[in-house]
Structures are given as C-alpha cells and as structure tokens.
Specification:
Blueprint (H helix, E strand, L loop, with lengths): L12 H51 L9 H4 L8 E7 L6 E8 L2 E6 L6 E2 L13 E3 L13 E4 L6 E4 L8 E7 L7 E8 L5 E9 L5 E8 L5 E4 L3 E2 L5 E8 L5 E9 L5 E11 L15 E3 L8 E3 L5
C-alpha cells in the first residue's frame, strides 16, 4: 500500500496580522460611530427636556396671579428623560421675574433661561456644568467692593483702610495694612466666615508687599482666640501673589481668616484682597458672583457666591 503525502495549506503569520489589524480598525470605527450616536441621542433628550421645561415654566407663570415662576423644582414638576438631572434657579423678587434651568446627563449640559430661550450647551451661573459640581465662596465681599467692615488688624502700627488698586484684573479694591517700623506679627483678619462642621475647607487670597518680606495665611476660630491652621511661609516678590491653605475645621462653625507678616522687618505696607473660603481640598482660581458662570446667592458683594471652579 502506497501513501501520498500532500502539503497542507494555511495562513501565514503576515496574513493573520493583516486580518487582526482589519478587525481592529473595523471595531474602532464601530465604537466611534456608536459613541457618536449615543452622544447625539443624549443631546437630543436634553434639548427635548428643556423645550418642554421652558414651555411648562411659562405656562405656570401665566396661570399665577402674581406672574411668578415656580419657587423650586418640586413646584415646577418638570418632566425629564431617564438619566437627565435638572438644576433650577429663580428670582421672583424682580420684575419681570427671571429663571434659569440646567439639565445634565453625564458630562453634557444644556440650559435655558428667561433670556436664553433656545437650549444652549453649558449651564446656568451657579449650576453644575458637564458633570462638574459648583463650589461656594463663603466670603461675602471678597474683593471689598462694598466696604472693609469685615476686616480687623492686630499688632499693626500703620492705620488700615480700603484702597483702590488697578493692577489686579477684575478687582478694584484691597485692604491696606502694615507697620511703620521693624515690628513683627502684624496681621489682618477677615471675620464672620460661617462653615459646615467636620468638613475640609480651603482659604486663598491675593496679597502684595515689597520684595523680601515673609507672609503666611492663618485660620482662627470665630473669636480669634485659637489658631487652627497656617500656611507655609512665603517670601514676597513685590507683585501680587496667590496664597493658599487647607484645613479640616472639625466642630468649628465660624472662623476668622487672614494674613500675617513674620519677622522683624519694616516699615512695610501690605495689600490683601480676593478672599475665597470654600469646601474642597483643591486649589482653585479666584472667583465670585461676578465671574463667568458664577452667581451671587443674594445681594451682589454682600452674599456668598457659587459656580463651577477652575484650576489655579
């Protein structure tokens, strides 16, 4: 009996690699296309909810004898698609009344208001945007636009006052204090900052002093009798510098925050402004109710303010 040996044909390594690459490319195209379709579906649902929502708000206002919008989301009872979340702000104390609605799904947000009636990508001032939650600046007059009544000084030999500044964008006033001679421990404190207990907070502010002096931030309890935290020492360079310190306030419900000059140097004049106290551990850029995407909780420059933070 004779046996014939036949060569068995198969795929080469190169051919297999080509097939794998083609499959990978097709899979990538499919995923991209699916994500695009999913994103368009999300945006369509957000826009649809806002169009329905603005119609509902206007209808409720027209049926209200005082021509006011609903006081909150519960009263508005806006319909929403699965996965979408609303945020709503209203001011019925002005005439005509105003409102703003943000709806978010994942990292996508759209909003409408009494002025912006077409659903627009982004969010209302003070609302979450793209899944990023807002923070609240607890300093009620952070850039001294109203007055300097919240500020006090200790161990300073120079009179303190609110002064105009022109070299810090967006800020027109600062608190001026200092020493007329070579003394130490001169500090300025911002009083009456109310906090949520047992939470991590951060305090930051702008300060400016002639080059070569040493400054640091300090956190005291509400009466100023106990030092809770202080920042690292910073040597001044003659320009505006941003200072930052974080701390867990424990059961303390009110604090004084401020800046202190160290060392037996002087005379020196120090400027401080742009205070922020907020509940977070990150270092954020200065913002208040006049900043883009931020809003005051009450009267401008006399209330807390909220908005989506940006990195420092």
């Amino acid at each position: 009996m004779k046996y014939s040996l036949q060569k068995r044909e198969g795929f080469t390594i190169v051919e297999l690699l080509v097939v794998i690459v083609v499959i990978g490319v097709l899979a990538a195209i499919t995923i991209i296309a699916f994500n695009g379709i999913k994103q368009r579906a999300t945006e369509t649902s957000l826009i649809s909810d806002l169009r329905s929502g603005i119609s509902t708000l206007h209808s409720l206002k027209s049926m209200n004898s005082s021509e006011q919008y609903p006081a909150d989301l519960t009263a508005a009872d806006l319909k929403k698609s699965p996965g979408n979340t609303y945020e709503y702000s209203v001011d019925n104390t002005v005439s005509p009344a105003t409102f703003c609605v943000t709806v978010t799904n994942g990292s996508t947000s759209y909003y409408v208001s009494d002025k912006v009636t077409t659903p627009t990508r982004g969010g209302c001032p003070g609302h979450s945007v793209g899944g990023i939650a807002p923070i609240t600046n607890l300093v009620t007059d952070p850039k001294l636009a109203d007055d300097a009544d919240q500020w006090v000084t200790t161990f300073c030999t120079e009179p303190s006052s609110r002064v105009s500044v022109s070299d810090l964008p967006g800020i027109s006033y600062a608190y001026q204090f200092g020493d007329s001679g070579p003394t130490t421990n001169c500090r300025a404190l911002l009083t009456g900052i109310n906090l949520a207990q047992n939470q991590y907070h951060a305090f930051s502010m702008w300060a400016k002093a002639p080059a070569g002096h040493t400054l640091k931030l300090e956190i005291f309890n509400g009466t100023g009798s106990t030092l809770l935290q202080s920042s690292a020492n910073v040597v001044t360079n003659g320009s505006w510098q941003r200072f930052w310190v974080g701390w867990n306030n424990g059961t303390t419900a009110s604090v004084r925050v401020g800046i202190r000059k160290l060392g037996n140097t002087g005379p020196v004049t120090i400027l401080a402004t742009g205070g922020m106290v907020y509940q977070a551990a990150a270092q954020y850029a200065y913002a208040d109710g006049d900043s883009p995407g931020w809003s005051w909780s009450g009267t401008a420059n006399s209330s807390t303010s909220s908005g989506v933070p940006t990195s420092n």
